[in-house]
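Exercise 7.
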Amino acid sequence: MTPDSITMTSRSLTRYEVIRKLLDGYINGTEAAKQLSLSLRHIKRLKVGVYDKGAPALIHGNRGKQSNRHLDTKVEKRALDLIKQHYADFTPTLATEKLKEQHNIVLSIETVRKRMITEKLWKPRERKQNKQYHHWRPRKEHEGEMQQFDGSYHRWFEDRGEESCLLAAIDDATGKITKAVFADNEGVDNVFRFWKGYVETHGKPVSIYLDKFSTYKINHPSAVDNSELLTQFQRAAQELDIRLITAHSPQAKGRVERLFGTLQDRLVKELRLRGISDKETANRFLAETFIPWFNERFAVTPAKRGDVHRQLNQQEKEELDSIFSVQSSRQVGNDFTIRFKNQWLQLEEKQSVTVCKKDDVLVEERLDQSIQLRSLRRGKYLLYRALPERPQRTVKTPVLSTTTGTKSPWIPPANHPWRNDGKRMKSGKQIKNEAQICVE
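Solution. The predicted structure, written as tokens, is:
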């Protein structure tokens, strides 16, 4: 890295490009705020900073510094030990008061509550679900601000073909079908192909509204509020800085649900009239004929002009195949092989980075069916070759002395037990006593 260069994340780079467009007059402040999901006031601050200092203004001044509100681990440990010893059955509020009164330890109630919940000393009460009045959620103001996405299994070709899945995205502000594709299922590969084509054509939407299908969200009870448990789709959206919103009911994302109701009526009949009975022809008909007609017929004018889709930057374009790949973590074996789905991948001897045994490697299953290996520690791709079978373990046969056939050169001394005809050998103490008697 040269002295004049700075390191920026993909998110900071996206912010810089949007702010540059704002400074050049291609977009206004409201559109920039929508694209970056920031307030208009913050956009103004970023605009002034980039105008005065350039790209370094987008790097936070506290990067690499310790938080001013950092809690001393020794104080936290002492407080937790006191709570376990004296106040295990106290409420967090009362425990906080006693820590201050009796031990002169000042902590916030929320800090004590979080620590007690973590240590299973306090169980939060469940909130009551009161009956609330539900009303229609207003549309988003800008095109590209939210895409409602879902898949619908249906006999789209009636008795002319098997049941298939229609993946579709509709813009919340305009009601336009931004993309629709027939696929076999709603699995991760088909969803990845859908959104890879979407961002290449339209750019990145600010948010995606979808349901809790297993492709999009881990629904296991232990996954609640655990940011480390992500689906492949959540991980890809996070890398592209696209916010995912999961609906708790079909009615919440009613726009795409009503779209499928319309398509199951109109699209099925259009396919029947044209005699289309395969997915390839149907996808071509959707892109060229049906979607343009539907958008012209049913789309509405958004509340505010402007498309807030964010175009892919150069780094994202180069990493797009990697982002939309199924990624799994594996470990390098002692023989520098990696086992993945009953395959054995042998790392080449010459690599661009140093690879050690037990290193963690990221295996990328890309949409073109190729497999790429990337070092998690170095971030570089590794060279490998696929082995036809599992490597055989080479075992060296030990050479035993009894099988050599050579005679030992050692000769026993004259006083060795072997030369005493089986008689018991005298001890050192007896020999010493006999020597003293001879002297006397």
